[in-house]
Write a structure and sequence with these properties.
The complex is a heterodimer of chains A (131) and B (559).
Chain A: E1 6-10, H1 19-30, E2 34-37, H2 44-53, E3 58-63, H3 68-81, E4 88-93, H4 97-106, E5 110-112, H5 118-128
Parallel strand pairs in A: 1-2, 1-3, 3-4, 4-5
Helix pairs in contact in A: 1-5, 2-3, 3-4
Chain B: H1 4-28, E1 36-37, E2 43-44, H2 58-62, E3 85-90, H3 95-107, E4 112-116, H4 119-122, H5 146-152, E5 162-166, H6 171-185, E6 193-196, H7 200-207, H8 214-231, E7 235-236, E8 238-241, H9 243-247, H10 252-272, H11 277-280, E9 284-290, H12 294-315, H13 321-324, E10 328-332, H14 344-358, E11 363-365, H15 378-393, H16 408-431, H17 434-439, H18 442-459, H19 488-502, H20 505-520, H21 526-534, H22 539-550
Parallel strand pairs in B: 3-4, 3-11, 4-5, 5-6, 6-7, 8-9, 9-10, 10-11
Antiparallel strand pairs in B: 1-2
The chains are: A alpha/beta (131), B alpha/beta (559).
Chain lengths: 131, 559
Amino acid sequence: MSKLIRVLVAKPGLDGHDRGAKMIARALRDAGMEVIYTGLRQTPEQIVAAAIQEDVDVIGMSILSGAHNHLFPKVINLLKEQNAEDIMVIAGGVIPEDDVSFLKEMGVAAIFTPGSTTTEIVQFIKEHVEQ
Amino acid sequence: MFDQEKLSEFKTARKEWESKELQKSLSRSAERKETFKTGSGDVVGRLYTPEELEALDYMSEIGLPGQYPYTRGYQPTMYRGRLWTMRMYAGFSTAEESNKRYKYLVDQGSTGLSVAFDLPTQIGYDSDHSLAEGEVGKVGVAIDSLEDMETLFDGIQLDKVSTSMTINAPASVLLAMYIAVAEKQGVAPDKLRGTIQNDILKEYIARGTYIFPTEESMRLITNIFEYCSENVPQWNTISISGYHIREAGSTAAQEIGFTLADGIAYVDAAIKAGLDVDSFAPRLSFFFNAHNDLLEEVAKYRAARRLWAKIMKERFGAKKPQSMMLKFHTQTGGSTLTAQQPDNNIVRVAIQTLAAVLGGTQSLHTNSKDEAMALPTEDSVRIALRTQQIVAHESGVTNTVDPLAGSYYIEAKTKELEDKAMEYIKKIDEIGGAPKAIDAGYIQQEITDAAYKYQMDIEKEEVIVVGMNRYRIEEKAPQGLLKVDPAVGEMQKKKLVTLKEKRQNRIVEERLNALKKACEGTENVMPYILEAVKAYATLGEICGVMREVFGEYEQSVML
């Protein structure tokens, strides 16, 4: 039997919009993954520490406040510093097309913008996490 | 509501119709779906008739506009007398930039201001705080001190406009800044008109910009009620908000049930603090969402008005009619907008505008078509404002009061939503009131369940969202979205350095100490906050003192 995929769903920054994060967390859980949800107002340091401690395969972050260009790269850099870049980072929220390519260059594996389905996200994770 | 004899004639006629015409039609071709549902997932009947309203008493349940229970509106003439306030929520970047946007909106016919603050301001951090990094000026304007507030309202006479401020945990501080700016303009506090959101319970439930624990937050709120009833009597001291509860995924019934339950908690807290219900209740206001199911939404506003009137009269024994009148602001539903084919959002907003107006709103913000992607540009805000103006001046719906009243469906739906909301209120009462129900996670869980069901319905295409899960096209990335200058954070930091050099730091310190003592005791803290603000203590310093004394709220995390 293959190991269950473990995902940390996190809300970085001060943004309080957690509907998306909660929907994703539930959908991933319903798809058979192990999900840890952080709740609001997590610093990049807290997110990376939780990801390492919980030994997750994936970090999924959601931001709707416009602080994505600042906070997502910080998480990626911290993962590198801690030799944990094998943890895949995916993200979602209100993220303009212009910023998507920048964030992908920085190392975000995929960005799911409004209108994405939970099915696509589940599929993406299953395809990209080595089990 | 109807003559018994006529009603029984009707019932016979209906049975006959069902067995003949209806049967024939259904046998020729079935209906499109087995069940038809509202936007909130409630089953809708095929036909509504006098039979569905048999038990409804017109005078006690519907009545006349301006009369208890205010189902038809709280004023006798409604929009024949005065249109709703067209109040566009705006604010981004610095106070200078936002001030320009306000002047533009007023030029374009906006009749009230509505200030959006950035997240650090809403959570009581100055722009130079480490947690503010990347967030300064993003979702609203950055306000660090009275100086920023003076810039924000530069050239706007505060006795001429009404201003709504979406501020909750630090509402007392921003209100104090507003009063101080007015004073500098020579405008007395009793001339000020506007609203602070000041609704902490829905921050715990759905919006997330809380600072202090529940009890201390409720104290700040009742301090504001008391201070304003004496000094700023025309100010709406709270805007009890269902908007964010709905955006988080609730149904229409939950939106009003949970919001009125929050309302009950505020009234309870103020009465417990020794205030007379009729001294503060007339200044309570509400804030609801407008989603796409036009008729369900209209019924929702009417149900909320009737239910609140009954609660104030029967539960709290209010005597003044003004204490029983539910007055509300509406914003169209942000979560209904699609990033796909964004022009379609103009149509959605138009339907939602009609819902709010047919439901008797006192003020309205219409969202812009690009808001699923970014803050709106000036052009898209103008279309959103024009949508209101078209409904106001061209649609004809403003010519008569509560025009959908008496529709069998609307009246039946109003009753159904009132009953469902009351069920939620009863459940919350059983748990021990809204604050306890929030601590227990009951309200959040109900909302998340509803949101998840809706998401799954979209993915199964049981709910159709045009352009998103049906009628899709290939699209290019949208052009010309508004971008906030990333240098805003640095600009605000520099302003803070200069401010701290030129103000009298000894006085700041004294006033912050006095505030701290007041927080530790039982006095009303408002006068102390006002004094600190006037000495140019920053928002972060003032909230810092309160954080020290009150501690911070800890969210109960649940899925």
